[in-house]
Write a structure and sequence with these properties.
Elements: E1 5-10, H1 15-25, E2 36-41, H2 47-59, E3 65-71, H3 74-77, E4 83-86, H4 98-119, E5 125-128, H5 133-142, E6 152-154, H6 157-171, E7 178-179, E8 182-184, E9 192-194, E10 199-200, E11 203-204, H7 205-209, H8 212-224, H9 226-234, H10 239-255, E12 263-268, E13 280-288, E14 291-294, H11 302-324
Parallel strand pairs: 1-2, 1-4, 2-3, 4-5, 5-6
Antiparallel strand pairs: 7-10, 8-9, 10-11, 12-13, 13-14
Helix pairs in contact: 1-10, 4-5, 5-11, 6-8
The chain binds NADPH dihydro-nicotinamide-adenine-dinucleotide phosphate.
Length: 328
C-alpha cells in the first residue's frame, strides 16, 4: 500500500477549512488512489472546533483518510508535510491600517515559514490562501531559505475560475470550451483577468466578445469584486468556492495542465513580462510532473500592460512595506 501524503491545513476550523477538509479526505486534492494523512493547525481557541470537524471526518469513513492530527504547534503541524495549505490568516478589521494587517500576518506567516523550513518533507508544496495571500506567501518563503523558492505559491485560481464562469455566461459557451485565460498580478481588487490570449471553442475570446467597454467596465470589475458581491448576497464569505479553488490549484500543480491549456498561479516572479524578480505575482503557467513553468512569449497589448503594471506596483509596495517591518 502507498504511503499517505501528509497534508497540513492551517486555520482548519474556519469557514474555508470546513469546506476544504472533506474534499481533501475524499481524494479530490491529489487523486482517487492517493491516501492522505491530515494535520490541522489552529490557534488555541480554534482547537475544540477542529476536534469537532475531525469527528465528522471520522464519521465519513473516507477510505483514503489514514490519520488526523490536531495541534496548535506549527513545528508539529508541518512535520513531514508534503502539501501545506495556509488558510488561517488575520482578517482586516474595521479601522485597521494596511501596515497593521501586514504585521499581524507577518506574525503568523514568518514562524510558519520557518517551521516549514525546519520540518516539512523535501518535496513540500505550499499554497497560501489567507489574505493578503501573495505577500503572506512571500513572508513565509523568505523565512524558509532551505526550501526552493518556487514551492511557495499564492491562490489566484478562484479569480481564474470566476473569470471563466463570467466569460462563459457572456458568450453562451460551456466553461469547458474556455481555455488559456490568465489572471495577472495580485489577488486583490487590482488583479487583471486577461482574455486577449484566451480561447472560446478554439477562437480568440477577445475577438469573439469584441466589446472593450464590457471588458473594462463589466467583466474586470465583476471578477475583481465577486467576493464582496457574495458576502452581500449570502451574508457570509465565499468559503466553498475558495476551498474549491484551493483543491483545483494543488490538483493542477501535482497532476498537470491539459494539453493546449494553462492555469493561473501566484508564484515567485523570475522577471518574466517585466514583473520584478522575487515578488509573488499571478502568471499564466503550465504544470507537469509537479512543476510549473510560466507561459512565455505572449504579446501584451497596451490595455493589458497598464493593468498588469498597476497590480504589480501594488505588490512591490506590499513587499516594500513588509521589508520595512523586517519580515523579509
Ligand atoms: P475563512 O476560513 O473564511 O478565511 C481564511 C482566510 O482565507 C482569510 O484570510 C480570507 O481572507 C482568505 N480568503 C481567501 N480567499 C477567500 C474567499 N474567496 N472567501 C473568503 N475568504 C478568503 O476565515 P475564518 O475566520 O472562518 O477562519 C480562519 C481560521 O483561521 C480560524 O479558525 C482561526 O482560528 C484560524 N487562524 C489560524 C491561525 C494559525 O493557524 N496560526 C492564525 C489566524 C487564524 P479575507 O478575510 O481577506 O477574505
Amino acid at each position: 500500500t502507498r504511503t499517505p501524503v501528509n497534508v497540513t491545513v492551517t486555520g482548519a476550523a474556519g469557514q474555508i477549512g470546513y469546506a476544504l477538509l472533506f474534499r481533501i479526505a475524499s481524494g479530490q486534492l491529489l487523486g482517487a488512489d492517493v491516501p492522505v494523512s491530515l494535520r490541522l493547525l489552529e490557534i488555541p481557541q480554534g482547537l475544540k472546533a477542529a476536534e469537532g470537524t475531525a469527528m465528522e471526518l471520522d464519521d465519513c469513513a473516507f477510505p483514503l483518510l489514514r490519520g488526523i492530527e490536531i495541534t496548535d504547534d506549527a513545528n508539529a503541524a508541518f512535520s513531514g508535510a508534503n502539501v501545506a495549505l495556509l488558510v488561517g490568516a488575520r482578517p482586516r478589521t474595521k479601522g485597521m491600517e494596511r501596515g497593521d494587517l501586514l504585521s499581524a500576518n507577518g506574525g503568523i506567516f514568518k514562524p510558519q515559514g520557518k517551521a516549514i523550513n525546519d520540518h516539512a518533507a523535501d518535496d513540500i508544496k505550499v499554497l497560501v490562501v489567507g489574505n493578503p495571500a501573495n505577500t503572506n506567501a512571500l513572508i513565509a518563503q523568505a523565512a524558509a531559505p532551505d526550501v526552493p523558492a518556487e514551492r511557495f505559491t499564492a491562490m489566484t485560481r478562484l479569480d481564474h475560475n470566476r473569470a471563466i464562469s463570467q466569460l462563459a455566461a457572456k458568450t453562451g459557451a460551456a466553461v469547458t470550451d474556455i481555455k488559456r485565460l490568465t489572471i495577472w498580478g495580485n489577488h486583490s481588487a487590482t488583479q487583471y483577468p486577461d482574455i486577449f490570449h484566451a480561447e472560446i471553442a478554439g477562437k480568440n475570446a477577445a475577438e469573439t466578445v469584441n466589446d472593450e467597454q464590457w471588458l473594462a467596465d463589466t467583466f474586470i470589475p465583476t471578477v475583481a469584486k465577486r467576493g464582496a458581491a457574495i458576502i452581500e448576497a449570502r451574508g457570509a464569505s465565499s468559503a466553498a468556492s475558495a476551498a474549491n479553488a484551493a483543491i483545483d490549484h494543488v490538483h493542477t500543480w501535482v497532476n498537470g495542465t491539459p494539453a493546449g491549456d494553462w492555469t493561473s498561479m501566484g508564484i515567485p516572479s523570475d522577471g518574466s513580462y517585466g514583473v520584478p524578480e522575487g515578488i509573488i505575482s499571478s502568471f499564466p503557467v503550465t504544470t507537469k510532473d509537479g512543476r510549473y513553468e510560466i507561459v512565455q512569449g505572449l504579446d501584451i497589448n497596451d490595455f493589458s500592460r497598464a493593468r498588469i503594471d498597476a497590480s504589480v506596483k501594488e505588490l512591490t509596495e506590499e513587499r516594500d512595506a513588509v521589508r520595512e517591518l523586517g519580515l523579509l
